[in-house]
Amino acid sequence: MVSAPATAPRRPRGRIDKRQAILEAAFDVFAERGYAQALVQEIAERAGVAKPTVYSHFTDKETLFRAALTAVAQSVMETNLVELDRLRSPKKDLRKTLNDVAHHLVRSCCDHRSRSLRWLTYAQVARFPDLIEVVQDYTSLRIAEAMADRLGRLSLAGHLRPCDPATAAEQLLALITGPLETRSRLGTRRLTATEMRTLAEAAVDTFLRAYAAD
Predict the structure, then answer these.
(1) How far apart are CA 162 and CA 185, in angstroms?
(2) Number of other residues whose CB lies within 10 A of the CB of residue 112
(3) pLDDT tens-digit profile of 20-40?
(4) pTM for this one?
(5) Most buried one in 91, 111, 154, 163, CB count within 10 A?
(6) Which CATH architecture fits 66-211?
(7) Local structure of 85: helix, strand or coil
(8) How far is CA 10 from CA 13, 73, 140, in A?
(9) 14-59 domain in CATH 1.10.10.60?
């Protein structure tokens, strides 16, 4: 009789893994229930940990809320920064590269995490007035700084006309996010894939009309 192979023992999750699981579960619960209705017990269950474990990582519900939103904001930023790096070497077709980057930024703004992050931040601005600055720093200001750096490099390389990179970045991002907020009804309406692509390409077209090198 051949015995079944022994399964490897399940390795216990480390402290960092548990913390990450708690943060992810917390954001999902806060996004679904709102801050007031979210229960730490439900967050613990979704994270697969005991309720005291949540409190061992985060002293209270307020601390957990801040940490969860900050973690998502940072994750969104990191993903977008990777995409912006494509502008370091646009090769021959600058328009196509800008279109792809703009399209990524539009999709990032429209995805579930980003929409939930905005809703939660705005909804709790009275209780957590400083949190909006943290979220904006990660999701807007640092992206604008990185965009300015990339556009400045493109200008020096002769791909764009001489310009103030910070102003150019601000205007390109405004061309993307302004129509996006209007068409999505402040994030309450889902855009189709075609709408997102069209919006991104229109923003880039207007930008290049103003900043393309002669």
Answers:
(1) 36
(2) 10
(3) 999 999 999 999 999 999 999
(4) 0.88
(5) 154
(6) Orthogonal Bundle (1.10)
(7) helix
(8) 9, 32, 41
(9) yes
